[in-house]
Structures are given as structure tokens and as C-alpha cells.
Design goal:
The complex is a heterodimer of chains A (552) and B (334). Helix content of chain A is 27%, strand content 19%. With 552 residues, chain A is α+β, with helices and mostly antiparallel strands. With 334 residues, chain B is mainly α. The chains are: A alpha+beta (552), B mainly alpha (334).
């Protein structure tokens, strides 16, 4: 039983199981709709994936067995595993993938992932039942990884053609338990759904067990609960009424572990009580607004940031700072190590109040009677906005800015997202998903293609643009991960990024989601990182397949 | 009862409904932010959709929901739809219809609030009447202070105290939920008992907070009634105490209580917002809470409109039936 998803207090999508509609919450569908491939961003030399699963560099073939790109990365052929079946006994074929992709294109932009499919897929065909061929609009060596390799919350679900065909994809709920809907390929089938709980029972005719791909999972019933507040989650865990929960604040996960020795975390009972998520936290600005449009001012602000102190106070010592907008995943570390020389030229980790003072003075700022930087009689006030996820670190950042002479304060407005994406916020503490395997996706987040003039919404909240950077990142997008050229392009792009510092990296972000070992063992952890333990991620099926009943 | 009074009262009912419905439309719109974008941003933050597709999706869904139309046009549409109890799609739970979500949540709220309100009314009214009765045990008089205190404490705070005492410290009652998680609802005695077990604490928090209100109101009315001539007359006639209590005192004092009860019943669907949130009950209160925090206009419109309608209707009915309850009241012109 787990507390999960983004449905606070109660489920509202109780009669809906169309994964492409925005109203769906992660309450089970993410573990029963299987991908072509899985990716474990936490793989190590010792552990790649779950025991018994073929895995190389974190990539695990699932419904797909392998794929091959054409030399120009404009075509990719995917081979599928034989014997995969839907829960109603119908075979899973390449036609299901073709149908799904075409359905998304036809219903763009309303369905989740539909604009992506429309942008990238020129044509998709099924030469035979176990082969899919994509023809892309532009070279994209990451196409399969981006959309058909499940990692974190990313991945396009494949739906059964025989169920969705003839339906209005924008309204079809794909829910009728009496008729066997939803039809899925995973080892569980939904048996009950209401606002309080969603129940999935193991189905013993899962294709994986039938074909010998993997034995059935041990848990016979999954009960997903809504995302209760943390205090309630802690009580459920302490009372052994929940096996896993959402990510928690430090104090709460420590309280849960103190009161029930069977509760543990990714790092056991030691700090940081979790794992690094793909969502590094930074201090962002509206880089179109004065004076934040000046990279020197951004660097001056960076010079008053003491990251060690943020970790010490904000994270109570249980965490790590970061100098790059990347999580410290093994595959990414290989790239970020390659830019070590840039930090000598652009020292981001440079807590230096004197340097900041000199820079501000060179820009015409002087300290006013309150000790804050002012120019032409106007005090430079910075109102940071943030949201609950960043409430640990933001007050510390504000205090450091004030000590550095910046008149900073912070707010947690309910329309935080609107404010930053509409360009109405000057500065904010925020994170982002992005790269997990190679550095391209995070770099893409800062491209000017996603920028817009002030007053218009833009999906790049930093509103930073640099033509040279854009070109380099565009080139990165056409180079396959692993190609040495990618590291060079990344180095060049990061040189611009660090010079301009559109977003000041602060700390790594952690998933501190406790697990209860009273009934189930073999949860993933730092010693056995076969996948991360978030039950709301698309990879949680791997955890379910690995859990073992706890010894009495 | 004059026909003009009835017509006037009905017109008043319509005006109240229109005025409240208008406020209901505009107040949520004063909150900052675009609910569609907020929802999509939340999904993109986690990676569930790509950040690059948000703006296109926002435009498409704003069009779908009519949010791209001028506000006056949206307002007229809303009034027309509300008259037909059609509130459109939920913004955050698309393609679920707002009305369907409300209907699904309603039984939980009515089950809890209706029973708790009636129980609190009966208990409080009786207690208030007895407390004011001179021949009642004197110990009852000491209950005024605790009742006054309880009636001043918000019921959701009482709920938190009860949760701490009986769910966390003592684990006598479940922490939350409408029934035991893991069981599937069936029409069986076992399930009914389970639901009742889960409803005790939320009901108790409402009853404890409300019983003082009813008791103090009734006590005040009883004290006034006891000084009436017909009470002295009844005693002089040597009627039994119980007869005087029920037929002369309580019957005359209870009328204002019925007015309050009608309004309280009308507010049944709205009164439990925070109690449901505290106890994790899947009722209207939790739905409204979620809708407000998620700026789900159409669900807010639906719930609040139903509340407005229920309260206005309850008040109308009580106004119309009052003369039947109390023959001294008449709407005839003199």
C-alpha cells in the first residue's frame, strides 16, 4: 500500500484511465502501462537494474528488444518482444504503437505528449507485427530515449488499438471495470477505484510470467492512497498501514524512522535520507529585466551565496550543493567532470563578499543607509518567490542575499507557476527536470526558442537568450549520447552558460521517500540502486517485481 | 397567507439566488493565475508532459472550456448553465464533469453532516430546555461553561484534538478515511459498521461544536417562555410537570430553533469542508477544498451554487411554513 501521486487528499480521476488526458493522476497507471524500454539513472558498475533483468548502462529492454537509428538519425527501427499480451488476452503488436502515435498526432495539442509526436514523427509504420519504423522530421538520436524509454516521470504510453480505435481520444475515459477496462500490459489489473483508494490486483496471466521473461511480482494487491499531508503519511507508516510514501521534509522522515525501526530510506537511517532527484534547485531570474539582465550582476549575486551554509541550515547537513544545473547521476557525471577547467575561469563556487562588492560598485551601486545596494536613489530590492518544495532552502538564500547587501525577501504565492512563466517574477528559487543520461535535455531548457517577450508566457522562465548557445545546443541535439563530439559541444555550451549564469545552481534536490520493511523487503537503496524508489514514477513496476516478503 | 406575500417571497428567492450566483462567478475569477496553465505546469515540472508543449495546450484547453471568451459572455453562459444545473467540465480533472464529481461526493457529506446536524440539534435543544427548567437537577447548570467553550471552538480544531486523542495516542478510532482502506465497499452490515466507526470522530467534532450552540439558544428561549402567563396558568391548573415541560414550555420555545435548523440543513453540504479534509473523507468539503486550491472554477461554481440554492430554498420553505408551525404568526394584513 502506498501513498502517492499528485492527488492531494482524495483521488478525482476515479473513473478515468486515459493516460493522455491532463486530468489523470499518478495513482497506479504508471506501473501497469509498460514501456518499450526502461532506464535506471542510478545505475552503478555493480548494479545496473533489477536482478534477472537484462541491463546495460542503465537501459533495460522491456516490450522492445532493441532499436537502430539510420546514420542520419532521421529513421529508427524498433524490434518488439514476442509473446507480449494485453490484459484481455489480445497480442501487443507494432500496430498498437503505430495507432498510438498517429492518435496523438491527430489530437495535438490536447493530449499529453501529442505536440512532441507531431513535432518529431513524419511517419510511423509497422512492417510486421514485431517491428516499428519511425521516420522523423529532423535528426533526433534521442527519440526513443525521450519518449519510449521510461525514466522518472517521462515516457509515452502505448494504448491498445482494439480499445481506443473509434473513440474520441480527447474524451474517452478508458474506464469500465465491468468490461475489463483499463486494458494494460502490466502485471496488475484495476479492481476498484474511488476517491479514497485505487486497488490493483495481480493478474497471474501476465505476459512476463507466461513467457518466462520475469516471474510474477510478489505483492498480490496494490492499494494506492491519495497524497495525504505529511503528518498523516508519517502516522500511516508508523502504524504499518503504508509500505511506502511520498517524498517528505527532513524532520518528518526522521520522525518516522525514530518511531518505527522498520522504516528506512534510500540511505538507510543516515543522511541524506534519500537520493538525488533529477531536479536540481537554482536561483533563477527574469534575465530580461533590469538589472538581472546583466550577467555581472548575476555573478555578483552568486558571490554572496554560501552553498555549504545552505546545505548545513536548509538541509540540516543532509544533502549536497551543486555548481551545475544537473543532478549527480553517474552518466551525467562523466560529462560534468569534463568541464572542471571552466570553473577556474568562471568560479561559480566563489563565496566572496568583497568580489561581489567590487562588482556592484563598478556597476554604480552604493550602499544606502540601510546597508543595501542602491543606484540613483533606488534600492535594489529582490523579492524571491518560491513554492513549498523549496521552503527549506529559500529562507537561507534570502538571508545570505541580505548579508551581501541585497534587499531580499521571499513569498510563496499560490500562483507561483504563473508568475515565473509569465515573466512577472524578478527572481525565484526553482528547479527543473531535464537530463538523466546525457546533458542535452537540460541545456535545451535554456534555449531561446522557449523564450518570449515580457508580458507573454514562456516555457523558459529564465528568459535568457544567447544565439551562439542556441546553435551549440541545436548541434548537441543531433549528436548521439556517447559520441565524443557531444562532450566538446557541451563544453562550449557550458562555457557560455557559466559565463552568463542565467540561473544560479544551488543545491541538489532529494527524494526523501521512506519505505516500510515490516512486510516487504528488497526495496532499492544506495547499496542496491536497481531503480529509484518513487512510487509515482513510471519505473515503479521494477520495484514491485523486485520486492520480497519480509522474513518473519 | 396572502398571495402577494408568497409571490414577493418567491421573487426575493430568485433575486437572492441571482445575486449570490453572480458573486460565485466573479469571486473565484479574482484569484490570480490561469488554472489550466497551473495544472499543466505542475505536470511539466514532474516531466509528465514536455514543457515545450504547454502554451499550445493552454490555448487549446482555454478554448475548450470557453475561458478565452470575454468575461461577460462567460458570465451569461454560466448563469444559463447554472439554471440547468450544468457546470461543464472540471478544469483539473478533465474530462470529468463537475456535476458528476459533486454527485459522487454528495452521499458522504450528507451521510455525515445530516446525521450529525440532526443529532446535535436534538441533543442540544433537549439539553438547553432541561438546563433552563427550574425543576431539573442543579448539576446541569454547570454545563453552561463547557458548552459555551465548545460552541466557540471551530469544529475542525476539535477534530484535530480528537484525532490526536483517539487516533494517535489511543488508536481507538481510525486516523482518516470513510472506511477501512483495502476493503471494497459493499452493502453489508460489516461495511456499514466500518463506515460508522470511521464517522464517529468527524461526527463527534461537529456535534460537540454544535451542541453548545443549540443548547444555549434553546436555554435562552426557555427562560423567556417560563415567564409567560400560560406557564403560570398551567402550573395553577396543577398539570403534571412533564406535560408543562413538553406541551407548554418546549413547544413554544422551539420555534426559533427550527429556523436555525432549516438554515443549518441548507448549509449541510458546505459546513464540513475542513472536517472532511482533517479526516480524509471523500465528500463535498474535500472536493471544494481541492477545487479552491486548484482554481477549478467550474467545480467551485457547481458546489457553491448548490449550497446557495439549498440555503435559499430552506429559508424560503421555513418562511412559508412558519404560520403552520405557529398559529400566532400570520401574514395577513391587519
Amino acid at each position: 500500500m502506498g501513498v502517492g501521486g499528485e492527488a492531494p487528499q482524495q483521488f478525482s480521476d476515479v473513473a478515468m484511465h486515459n493516460p493522455f488526458l491532463p486530468g489523470i493522476s499518478r495513482s497506479g497507471y504508471q506501473v501497469v502501462m509498460e514501456p518499450l524500454f526502461y532506464y535506471n539513472a542510478y545505475y552503478t558498475d555493480a548494479v545496473c537494474g533489477p536482478t534477472g533483468i537484462q541491463c546495460k548502462n542503465g537501459e533495460m529492454p522491456w516490450i522492445g528488444t532493441d532499436y537502430k537509428f539510420s546514420n542520419d538519425f532521421k529513421q529508427v527501427t524498433v524490434n518488439l518482444r514476442n509473446g507480449v499480451e494485453w490484459s484481455d488476452g489480445q497480442p501487443f503488436t507494432a500496430n498498437d504503437i503505430v495507432f498510438t502515435v498517429k492518435m496523438l498526432i491527430d489530437n495535438a495539442p490536447k493530449l499529453n505528449w501529442s505536440t512532441d509526436m507531431k513535432k518529431w514523427v513524419k511517419d510511423v509504420t509497422a512492417p510486421d507485427a514485431s517491428t516499428v519504423q519511425f521516420t522523423l522530421t529532423d535528426p533526433n538520436p534521442r527519440f526513443i530515449f525521450s519518449y519510449f524509454t521510461f525514466h522518472q516521470d517521462v515516457g509515452v504510453f502505448v494504448v491498445p488499438e482494439h480499445i481506443f480505435k473509434g473513440q474520441d481520444a480527447q474524451k474517452f475515459t478508458n474506464f469500465d471495470l465491468a468490461k475489463g477496462l483499463p486494458v494494460v500490459t502490466g502485471p496488475y489489473t484495476m479492481v476498484y477505484s474511488d476517491p479514497q483508494q485505487k486497488i490493483w490486483d495481480r493478474r497471474d496471466n501476465w505476459w512476463g510470467a507466461k513467457t518466462g521473461f520475469h516471474p510474477l511480482p510478489s505483492p498480490e494487491r496494490l492499494i494506492f492512497l491519495p497524497g495525504y499531508d505529511e503528518a498523516k503519511q508519517v502516522e500511516l507508516l508508523i502504524n504499518n498501514e503504508a509500505d511506502c510514501a511520498l517524498s517528505m521534509q527532513l524532520g518528518n522522515i526522521k520522525a518516522a524512522m525514530d518511531r518505527n525501526p522498520k522504516i528506512t530510506s534510500w540511505s538507510g537511517t543516515n543522511p541524506p535520507y534519500g537520493y538525488v532527484d533529477w531536479w536540481p534547485t537554482g536561483l533563477g531570474f527574469n534575465d530580461m529585466k533590469e538589472p538581472f539582465n546583466d550577467p555581472d550582476i548575476r555573478h555578483a549575486i552568486n558571490n554572496v551565496i554560501n552553498r555549504d551554509e545552505i546545505v548545513k541550515i536548509g538541509y540540516q547537513g543532509a544533502g549536497e550543493s551543486t555548481l551545475v544545473p544537473y543532478p549527480g547521476f553517474p552518466a551525467l557525471n562523466a560529462y560534468t567532470k569534463g568541464i572542471a577547467d571552466l570553473f577556474e575561469k568562471y568560479p561559480v563556487d566563489d563565496f566572496n563578499l568583497d568580489k561581489s562588492t567590487k562588482m556592484m560598485q563598478s556597476k554604480g551601486y552604493t550602499k544606502d543607509s540601510g546597508g543595501f545596494w542602491s543606484k540613483d536613489g533606488q534600492r535594489l530590492s529582490i523579492v524571491l518567490i518560491t513554492f513549498n518544495v523549496e521552503q527549506d532552502v529559500t529562507p537561507v538564500v534570502v538571508q545570505q542575499l541580505r548579508k551581501g547587501g541585497f534587499d531580499a525577501s521571499f513569498k510563496m504565492p499560490s500562483n507561483f507557476g504563473d508568475l515565473i512563466f509569465n515573466g512577472d517574477a524578478d527572481a525565484y528559487v526553482f528547479g527543473h527536470g531535464g537530463s538523466v543520461q546525457d546533458p542535452y535535455f537540460t541545456m535545451r531548457l535554456y534555449q531561446s526558442a522557449y523564450n518570449a517577450p515580457i508580458g507573454q508566457p514562456a516555457s523558459q522562465p529564465y528568459r535568457w537568450s544567447n544565439e551562439e548557445y542556441d546553435k551549440l545546443v541545436d548541434q548537441m541535439g543531433t549528436v548521439a549520447p556517447g559520441d565524443p563530439k557531444l562532450a566538446d559541444l557541451f563544453h562550449s555550451a557550458m562555457e557560455i552558460w557559466l559565463r552568463e549564469l542565467p540561473d544560479i545552481p544551488l543545491v541538489q534536490f532529494y527524494h526523501r521517500n521512506p519505505v516500510n520493511t515490516t512486510y516487504w523487503d528488497n526495496w532499492p537503496d544506495e547499496k542496491n540502486p536497481y531503480i529509484n524508489s518513487a512510487n509515482w514514477h513510471r519505473t515503479f513496476e521494477l520495484v514491485l517485481l523486485s520486492l520480497k516478503p519480509a522474513a518473519a | 397567507m396572502r398571495r402577494s406575500y408568497v409571490v414577493g417571497r418567491l421573487l426575493q428567492f430568485v433575486v437572492i439566488l441571482w445575486g449570490a450566483a453572480t458573486l460565485n462567478f466573479f469571486i473565484p475569477r479574482m484569484a490570480p493565475g490561469d488554472p489550466v496553465r497551473t495544472r499543466l505546469l505542475m505536470m511539466s515540472r514532474s516531466g509528465s508532459i514536455s514543457q515545450q508543449s504547454i502554451e499550445e495546450m493552454v490555448k487549446a484547453y482555454d478554448q475548450e472550456f470557453g475561458l478565452d471568451l470575454p468575461l461577460p459572455v462567460q458570465y451569461v453562459r454560466y448563469l444559463w448553465d447554472a439554471m440547468h444545473l450544468e457546470f461543464g467540465y472540471s478544469l483539473s480533472q478533465y474530462p470529468a464533469k463537475a456535476l458528476n464529481l459533486i454527485v459522487a461526493a454528495l452521499p458522504w457529506t450528507i451521510g455525515l453532516l445530516l446525521v450529525a446536524t440532526l443529532f446535535a440539534f436534538a441533543l442540544g435543544t433537549m439539553l438547553g430546555a432541561v438546563m433552563a427548567w427550574p425543576k431539573a437537577p442543579r448539576a446541569l447548570g454547570y454545563m453552561i461553561a463547557p458548552l459555551l467553550t465548545l460552541s466557540s471552538v471551530p469544529y475542525y480544531l476539535l477534530g484535530l484534538v480528537l484525532v490526536y486523542l483517539f487516533s494517535i495516542s489511543q488508536r481507538i478510532f481510525p486516523l482518516s478515511g470513510g472506511y477501512t482502506t483495502g476493503t471494497m465497499p459493499t452493502w453489508s452490515l460489516g461495511f456499514v459498521i466500518d463506515v460508522a466507526h470511521h464517522a464517529i470522530l468527524p461526527a463527534l467534532s461537529i456535534i460537540l461544536a454544535a451542541v453548545g450552540f443549540w443548547a444555549l439558544g434553546m436555554r435562552g428561549m426557555m427562560v423567556t417562555t417560563e415567564g409567560e402567563d400560560y406557564m403560570i396558568m398551567a402550573e395553577a391548573k396543577g398539570l403534571p410537570d412533564r406535560w408543562i415541560f413538553f406541551r407548554y414550555a418546549l413547544r413554544n420555545a422551539i420555534l426559533p430553533q427550527f429556523t436555525s435548523l432549516a438554515i443549518a440543513l441548507g448549509a449541510v453540504v458546505s459546513g464540513s469542508v475542513l472536517v472532511e479534509v482533517v479526516f480524509g473523507l471523500p465528500g463535498i468539503g474535500t472536493l471544494l477544498y481541492k477545487s479552491i486550491t486548484g482554481s477549478d472554477f467550474f467545480v467551485i461554481y457547481g458546489i457553491v451554487f448548490i449550497i446557495i440554492f439549498a440555503i435559499a430554498l430552506a429559508t424560503l420553505i421555513i418562511d412559508l411554513v412558519y404560520p403552520l408551525l405557529d398559529p400566532r404568526i400570520s401574514y395577513r394584513s391587519t
